[in-house]
Hints:
Chain B: This is DNA ligase (ATP). By secondary structure, chain A is α/β, with parallel strands linked by helices.
Amino acid sequence: MEQLGNSAPLPTISYPMSAPFSWIRPEPHGIHIVPSDCWVDPSRAVERALVTHGHADHARGGHGSTMATPETLAIMKLRYNTDQGAQPVHYGETITLPGNVRATYIPAGHVLGSAQILLEHAGERVVITGDYKRRPDPTCAPFEVTPCDIFITEATFGLPLFTHPPIEEEMARLLARLSSHPDSCVLVGAYALGKAQRVIAELRRAGHHQPIYLHGAMEKMCRLYEDFGVELGPLRLVSDHSKEEMRGHIVISPPSALNDRWSRRLPDPITAMASGWMRVRQRARQRNVELPLIISDHADWAELTRTIEEVNPQESWITHGREEALLRWCQLHQRRARALALVGYEDEDD
Amino acid sequence: MERFAALLDALVYTSSRNTKLALIGEYLRETPDPDRGWALAALTDGLDFKAVKASTIRNLMTERVDPLLWSLSRDFVGDTAETASLLWPDPPGETPPAPTVSETVALLQGMTRATVQHDLPALLDRLDVSGRYALIKLATGAMRIGISARLGKVAFAQSFGVSVDDVEEYWHGIAPPYTELFDWAAHGKAPPDTENMPLFRPFMLAHPLEDGTVDLSDYVAEWKWDGIRVQLVHAGGETRLYSRSGDDITATFPEMAEALTIPAVLDGELLVQGGHQGGKEGGAASFNALQQRLGRKNVSKKMLSELPAFVRLYDALGLEGEDLRALPWERRRERLEAFLPRLPATRFDLSQIVEARDFAHLAQIREGTRADAIEGLMLKRRDSPYVAGRKTGLWYKWKRDPLLIDCVLMYAQRGSGKRSSFYSDYTFGCWDGDPDKGAELLPVGKAYSGFTDAELKWLDKYVRQHTVNRFGPVRETDKSLTFEVAFDSVHASKRHKSGLAMRFPRIHRIRKDKPPHEADRIATLRAMVRD
Lengths: 350, 531
């Protein structure tokens, strides 16, 4: 996959880890809980995995056992067609891992079922956010600030230029473009897990009750959301309908289908994309996006920095994204921080 | 400024030329003077503010944002204006009203290196993200949003229903905000008075002579030299050199500007002195030599002495204040021949007439153009007036036949605009030895044209079904398809691994019948180099 930043990879900053926290170790392919021999979001198959949410880069298949929320386990079952070793953990529930480590799952506000994982051992508290956002989202439970000693945070949009505008503004722009082009359709590229359902739910909240047409790859995930009680309103499959029927309607597809020949079956589509990267004009241009919608399921710069302030940890570990800038912010604000060089996390489409 | 900012945003997010023309046209019709003129100047890169440079913006930003955070952001975005527009802190309290484009221009013109540090921030504080982007783009000069000067002029012409040739004719004579141009086009007033100005006149162009013949009693033949077509104009004491698109390239060829001091409008081929084209008598170096001089803003003394330019004259549009364009070609040619002795011989010569007994003889002469490294022949009606653009039946270009080589499809990329979902850009290669003895394919060129719409559909499908690898947007194919590629010439080049660069390669035929191992070798292509 292409690297989004132009900068060279940051070497892991190595200074002696404060000895008290030696039970938790960042390794290249995941975070290792040493006394339990468990891994959080490992990028390869392990015996025991704790998974924060269902995106493929965090939820790989093939683990001996997988501890995750029921929603995340359902998503993984949909993707890997097996629920072998699934161990559901509900929000707020605490489980005890071998070696006397307690793990509590707390909503992260990223997508359906996404969780932060609070780990406690020997009186020390570590929170791993996985991916998270602070904005309200009708399709998932909101992020909860959880005080801790070590805060392991993502940094996907960790540059000060990233500000996600209120989603209502983006919905208004989408609906305005739709009504001014009644003979076209607006094709919205959106990540199939989370973003697509959030866009649909937000459209409904904005009063758009027309049928929304889906690329085939979206269907099962939307049904899964509905099974968990997320109302998405009337949905139709593009493949079941004619060009004429889709004029004046919204179509949602994975970003990869935007410029693909699949889109030739649509009536004069206006290409939109729902992504935090759309804040940058050239990113939109590169994908031939005519209507960029700045909608992200990740925290923007202000949310990332505010969250560190609110959680107020002794130390922040930054897992993936644009670590250097967030590290710099911590330095400027006299906060201890380090960047972890984890492999395999990708968020090009968010 | 909001309307101009919205226009820029809309232009950035569209790849269709027609939509761009419509957007600019709509803006020009709906915006009052002089705002629209300034905007048009900004779009066509016609504005320059001495006090505001890219470094000015960088300095302003690093006073407000941590320098490391600025540089990380700038690196990610890849555009200083955009990064600054995104990172500029919104001022506290209510935003003062946004300035108009004219007010912005007046303020920018009034700034000096001393005051810019204070005045530019005050201006930025009056704008939102899109407005700041538009302001910085306008202030620093280079838009780089995919709008050429020509597109701006075409949009202007279409918007007011005037001829783009007329717009070109007046354009260089008037300065932003082009009020007289709008008065003429939008309000039907008299056109701008452009006499005694060194203006660009639209070129007369030629149709390709496909398979036809012409009667040499009606047509005269000239060599088609391999340089760049230029217009050299002297009027009102000034000399300008224009490229075929009307761009002013005087600064790149200062020796030519000095060489013409008599009022005239001359059409010719810009070349570098040498012995490559047409042998010693031809007197012209290869196109490659000329290419080293193109696009330079500063010309070193070394360049001037090692690669001296000259113009081989084809035609005279005007001499000493007299417009010759309505005269037949033969009369203009007589006038040009009579005028030539008054020009410095080191900088000008005359394009020779090619004498032939009949058309068959001419065809025979054309066969020899490749050996002489000449592009081909021009055929001009003896009675043709000089008219802008391509008028059927007046001028023909009769290029030498293209070179052909069999190559193997290696990589494909999607096109843009109309072809956005199709794999329409093809990289092809030749074998670096005997393919049966483990030779490899090396890329030798890239082509985007030469196929029909039906062939494009077929190729698109072929690429998708034969992909073995992906590198970002690029698909690597299984190297199972042979193309016959046509091209004008091939040159040694350090830019490519094969050491060769083709000029104007296009897909001539899809050779489904030819197995890839029978495609040509690099050595075959190298043997075609005539540098």
